[in-house]
Amino acid sequence: MPPPRSPRRWALLRLAAFALFTALVAALVHTAIHHGLRRVDTGGFGSANRIVQGRAPADLVITGSSRALVHYDPRVLTAATGLSALNLGRNGSHTGLQLAVLRTHLRHNPAPRLVIHNLDLHSLASPTEIHDPGQYLPYLDEPAIYAEVSEVHRSAWAWRHVPLYGYAVADPRLHWLEGIVRLAGLKRPESLIAGFEPRPWSWTGEFDRFVAKASAGYQVARDDRGRDQLAALLRLCRDSGIHVILVFSPEYTAVRPLQLNRASLLAEMSALAASAHVPLWDFSDTAICSDRRLFYNSQHLNAAGAEAFSRELARRLVSSGYTAPRLTFHP
Amino acid sequence: MLFNSLEFAGFFPVVGAIYFALPHARRTSFLLLASAVFYMAFVPAYILVLGATIGIDYAAALRIERARGRPRTLWLAASIAATCLILFAFKYYAFFTSTFVGLATLVGWHPSPPTLDLILPVGLSFHTFQSLSYVIEVHRGRQTAERDWRVFATYVLFFPQLVAGPIERPQNLLEQFRARHEFDPILLTSGLKRMAWGFFKKLVIADRLALHVNDVYADPSAHSGPQLAVATAAFAYQIYCDFSGYSDIAVGAARILGFRLMENFDAPYAATSTGEFWRRWHISLSTWFRDYVYVPLGGGRSGPWRRTRNLLVTFALSGLWHGAAWNFVIWGLLNGLYVSFGHASREWRDRFWTLAGLASGGAPRRALMWMTTFSLTCLAWVFFRASSLSDAIEVITRLGTGWSDPRVTTENCGPRQLVVGLAAVIFLETAQRVHRSTPLTVIIGRLPTLPRWSAYAGFIVLVGLAGVHGGSRFIYFQF
Description:
- The complex is a heterodimer of chains A (331) and B (479).
- Chain A has one domain (7-319): SGNH hydrolase (Rossmann fold, 3-Layer(aba) Sandwich), CATH 3.40.50.
- Helices cover 47% and strands 7% of the residues of chain A.
- Chain A has 13 helices and five strands.
- In chain A, strands 2-1-3-4-5 form a five-stranded parallel β-sheet, with helices on both faces.
- Chain A is globular.
- The model of chain B has no long low-confidence stretch (mean pLDDT 92).
- The longest helix of chain B has 37 residues, at 70-106.
- Helix content of chain B is 70%, strand content 0%.
- Chain B contains 19 helices and no strands.
- The radius of gyration of chain B is 24 Å and the shape is globular.
- At the A-B interface, helix 1 and helix 8 of A face helix 8, helix 17 and helix 19 of B.
């Protein structure tokens, strides 16, 4: 094609053609990353992929944030109760996203018999940001996940529909690399055990530095939306015929005096549990909580702590009648 | 308005299109207007500060040109004093009063000077120095005073280099506002490529490495020697890519409009001596201090002691130019000491290399010199980056601790981010090395259309994916 007479027009035409070409390359790369991530079968993406592929049936499902992820060892629970167990804990997730993950699980898998929902002091709060949104990007076609992500981030529609936009702006941890690596046929070693992530770490000192800066204590946020989301999770389980236990897993004892509204938050959670006729087991006052060797920071048990806590929880589950032979629970 | 913002992505094409659509006679006025809009996107009121600097130096230059003898020098002195007074009020007043109060307290006096509580206008030091270079050049008779205030105002306000340089000299830039710039497709593509390279440096390297640097330097006492060492080396590249990335975008944007800005960097970390480093780093500021401070002080003409004194004064002022805090002054003095020692020790070093059998140069000698230069530069960067002098000392004293735990990652910068940052730095250094013999754009330009477009599109996608898009400010904006 002979160039038009105006060099300006010709240059702009070429520029427009190049922009179109770049958009095409972006769309191809987006598709490659998306498919790569959906084929990952280890780690957090492997765990999520098994859920959306309907390959994650379990009698007992654990939901919650990072405290759920690193505190509950499904092997210990299964060995004690005979119930197959799966950990759905998600790093940094708030109750709304924990509910979305559970909904997604129920959409693709048979309903579990029992849900253990892990609580922390942030369970009644809805955040203004999603922690590490990159972990949800390949799953924005899941209605529950998309609804919650877009509730927090208005631009989630662009993450979902504009090629590469989500991976560019909402994936600072570069999860997309995992998709490329998987497409190249490489696999990362498995870091999770039925969704559980044991962290064999020693005390990091992070909490001590925090105390030095916030010795006067701090208020933990709560809001009505967060409370409603916890209530919705309980309702969803009731409507699906699933038993629920709310569990407040161990926290390092020394953090409690700093949490100025701890008592009122726990009272609100207890009231919510009581109104839904759901048991709330509080492990934040057990012997584990005062043993610093079992934690790596104030909120998280290390691998040894997780094992100790899982055994304690398993004993209580068994003593309360949550065991496999009794397919209908009558705790 | 940040270069790495959606606002600029809309602003620049619109300005470019209108600029070329306008008749030549109206273009400078339009550029002035666009530059004012660009600047007012930060804090609108501060355009008045810039207006004062422009007004003072515009009027002073006309007076200087007309005057002869002592009045000519007096007009220059008045102009410099007035311009620097603005800089002092906004940038240095709090520093000097707190230092004064500190010293007075030592002798039992407790003065309470008034506080101004002013926020530093973005890029004040840059446009102040650019404006000063104009009046000095007029005084030296190497530049005629500009009669058209719009041309002079646009010279100071020109938006691509307004907030972080390059600090232009009037001989290079002023005349370009009179020249007729036709739309040139070659300049358009060349400018866009240069801007893309700048975005790569800023978004992929600087902002990625910043994740690690910010974690570590926020609390040096909580991090081990390996983490501090990695963060310090990372900061060396963060600040280089942040600032040179800005310069690349500025040069590219100006080029699209038909303007040629000076180069501000020349692969500084390839330097094998600190003197060479300073010939490659922030060239527009280094040459400014050389021409207007170091040489007038006597430079290296009056013996080694005077040279050392002049170097230390020049580098201390350069440190103070960067920030009104003692750690910046120490950073400057440290670099002054490096360069002075480099001059003073030349003979001893030559003897050392002869004894070591490396008199004729070669790769081992260059590698040793490069490592020494990079390490010394990084040591000085500690003072530049640390939040306070005590933090800088904490970093240096902790550098040797905790090496039994080789973990270098931090909360916000995991292994993936570090690997990507490191890979990007290696790519940058390789590209810069290749570029010295044949520019990368020339090599890629020789390819047929499809692979050439694929290379450029792939690069853009890579910048999009591997970059950090939080709209972070350029470090040098604060100066």
